[in-house]
Each structure stands twice: as structure tokens, then as C-alpha cells.
Amino acid sequence: QVQLVGSGGGLVQPGGSLRLSCAASGSIFTISTMGWYRQPTGKQRELVATLTSGGRTDYADSVKGRFTISGDNAKKTVYLQMDNLKPEDTAVYYCYAESWVGRAGSDYWGQGTQVTVSS
Fold first, then answer.
1. Is 31 exposed, middle or buried (0-12, 13-18, 19+ CB in 10 A)?
2. Cα 44 to the chain's mean position, in Å?
């Protein structure tokens, strides 16, 4: 089992910045990928960015060049630096982890943190 605790959301004006953090606990040695998804009100959850234990990153096209994912692989923490925020970035952001035990994979989610971009 893996537990995820995310933090760092809030209210920011367009063009501003926020940094989200997520720490994993439990069976962290089973984690292969961590990242962030978001869910705007009334819409489906969507990928924002992911980071593998090997250091590979993946970003949604809508955030490329504005968001940066980083992390500490040993501690299984992940960060999302969000710059030049836009109103369309408003959503609940969920920390995510993919865990493997043998050939059995599991997805884990944090509790979600609200990011609101508004003037």
C-alpha cells in the first residue's frame, strides 16, 4: 500500500506561480512513476505531468513550457512548479503514483488540492 499527501494549492492571479508538493509513504519501493493529474469542475480527470523512477518526464501539451515536474526518487517525493498560470489551469490537482509488485500494478491517488487562477 502507498499513501500520498499533496500540498501547495491556492489562489493565484493569471501569470502567477504555484508549487505543488507530494510525499509518498508506505511501500514506496514499489513506486515506478509519480505525477500529477487535474480535474476541472464538470470535466474528466486529465494528465498534467509524470516522472518515472528513471527520470523520464511527460507533460500534457497544454502545460509544456510552463510547468516543470521534479522529484527525489529515493524519498519518493514529487513537485510541480507551475509558472505563467492561466485561468484554464483552475482545477483540483491530484498526486498520482503507479506501483508494481511483481506483475501486478496499482494506481494510488492523493486527496487533491485546489488550484484557482483568477484575477
1. buried
2. 15
